[in-house]
Every structure is written in C-alpha cells, then in structure tokens.
C-alpha cells in the first residue's frame, strides 16, 4: 500500500539510487584517519528497492539481481542500523521488518549500502509518522555514512568534507553510462589505505589545500555536455583500485576502444563506469562489452534520491 495521507502507513516501499562519482579528489589523510574529499556525485538509474513493515523486532531479508551473498542481514547492515537509529531518535517502541531488493553491485563503489540506509530512513519516517523532514533525515544520514546524505538527495551534487557536506549542483539533460560490474568487491578502507601507501612511497607531497571540484566538471554538468564532462572526469582512488585489481585496466581499454568517451573506476571500485555520447552509443558499447564476456549495464543519470513508491 501507499502512504495514507490521514496517518502512518502499514507498509512502505522506497526506491533509492546508486551513485557515480564523476569527479573525486582525495586530500591528505586527517588525524582521525579520514580523508577530506571533493566529490561530484550523480545519482543513476541503478536502484535499490526497500519495503518496510511494522513488526515487534528489527529484521531484514535481502534478494536481488546482483550477488547478495556478502550482504550482512544483522546489525552490520546499514539499512537496519538506519531503522534503529531513527527509532531511537523518535522513541519508537516497536521494530520493523525490512526487505531489500538489490540491484547496485555489493562493495562495488556505487554506494549500494548507503542507498539502502537512505531508503530505510525514508521508509521508517513514513511508517512511523515521524515527519522528520529532509533536514532531520539528512542529519541522521550523516551519522550513518559519508554517502548516505547523497542517496537521500539524489540528482547531482557536490560533496566536501568527508563527502557528506552537500550542495546541489546545477545540471541539465541526461548522461548515459555503461557500468561494468565485477564479481569480487573491493573494500573502501583498503583502497584508501593503498592510496596512502602509494602516495607515501612516491613521496608525493600532497598540497595542504582543501580538495576542490574542477570548474570544468561543474560547467559540463550545468550545460549537459557529455564530451566536455569526459575531458574533466577524475577519480583519485582509481590508481589505487587498479593497483589492487590490475585486470580492470584491460576492461577500461576495451571500453574506451569501443566508443566510450571515457572510462573511470566508480568510487573505490571495482565497478567501472563508461560515459557515452548518447543512448545509442551506450547501447552499442553495452553490446561490445557484453560480447567480450563482461556484465555491462546501461544506466543514466541524474535521477531522484530516495523516494516513496506508490504500489
Ligand atoms: P562504500 O563505498 O560506501 O563502502 P560500496 O558501494 O563500495 O560502498 P556497499 O555495497 O555499500 O559498497 O557495501 C560495502 C560493505 O558494507 C559490504 O561489503 C557489506 O559488508 C557492508 N554492508 C552493510 N550494509 C549493506 C547493505 N545494505 N548492502 C550491501 N552491503 C552492506
């Protein structure tokens, strides 16, 4: 059922998007172990579906079109943690039964767990009639993880700090991407750790300046120009991710040799994202990569953040 305008619902369905970082600059490691980053996020049409129903306890089941074997169904799961956090915040006595249908690759660098957390916040807020509003939900989202606020917001945004200080970016038109997923995930902390080691070894003195998004990226997003965006995409985690997964270099080359404007590692990888000039080129690229034996999906962005779906 949908949300009853007269009061809380008894079952809520929420859809939340995965993300691509079309630009990701990583600053020096901070004393607390985290890095300051500057990120340009785009929410894409690879989405997570979550259903929430009132129950006495907190529980979770997971299905999906991706391999969900590595997804914890206990309190390590970000969606369950989100539900408990919200319940604690509003003093809700009961629990919730969550079901997630996953389509974002697990540990793929596309923020699937963060999307689930954002979806759980929106769902429980509606289910329990909490009415925290977007700023209340955003505040809780930041406590759950750096990418959770963006999964709530969706669209196109610039993230600074740990990536969670968000400002909506002006964006026009639609960008077509072909996403190539990998069976084995990469751990985000491991990729950051490897980046630090690589930077230390090569004695790259990181400028103490605060990371910033290239103005060329903002301009390309503002006018909806895929060719211009391709000239400015960048991901500082890419070298570290490729060092841990050297096999991905060949896939990047194949995509770029098969019509992609550019290919990048998505977030901390190992998912690769290829930008196409238009939907037709994306389709051709998807076919070329699939024929070569890769799992290639055609997605587009920007799309909305976590939203209730009417059933
Ligand atoms: P991030 O970049 O935020 O680490 P990611 O997109 O690379 O995210 P996720 O799929 O979000 O990767 O999950 C990373 C790890 O988090 C998984 O390996 C899993 O152990 C754990 N996890 C916790 N909650 C979830 C969830 N709802 N879905 C998937 N993984 C989850």
Automatic annotation (TrEMBL):
User: What GO molecular-function term can you cite, just one?
Assistant: 4-(cytidine 5'-diphospho)-2-C-methyl-D-erythritol kinase activity
Q: Where does ATP bind?
A: 105-115
Task: Tell me the domain of life.
Answer: Bacteria
Q: What is its EC number?
A: 2.7.1.148
What keywords tag this UniProt record?
ATP-binding, Isoprene biosynthesis, Kinase, Nucleotide-binding, Transferase
Associated pathway? Isoprenoid biosynthesis; isopentenyl diphosphate biosynthesis via DXP pathway; isopentenyl diphosphate from 1-deoxy-D-xylulose 5-phosphate: step 3/6
Indicate the segments forming the GHMP kinase C-terminal domain, all copies.
218-289
Q: Identify the Pfam families for this entry.
A: GHMP_kinases_C (PF08544), GHMP_kinases_N (PF00288)
**Residue ranges annotated for the GHMP kinase N-terminal domain, each copy included:** 77-155
What does UniProt list as catalytic? 19, 147
At the top of the EC hierarchy, this enzyme's class is transferase
**Annotated function:** Catalyzes the phosphorylation of the position 2 hydroxy group of 4-diphosphocytidyl-2C-methyl-D-erythritol.
The text of the family note is: Belongs to the GHMP kinase family. IspE subfamily.
Q: What is this protein called?
A: 4-diphosphocytidyl-2-C-methyl-D-erythritol kinase
Whose protein is this, by species?
Microbacterium invictum
Starting at the broadest rank, the lineage of the source organism is:
Bacteria, Bacillati, Actinomycetota, Actinomycetes, Micrococcales
Gene this protein is translated from:
ispE
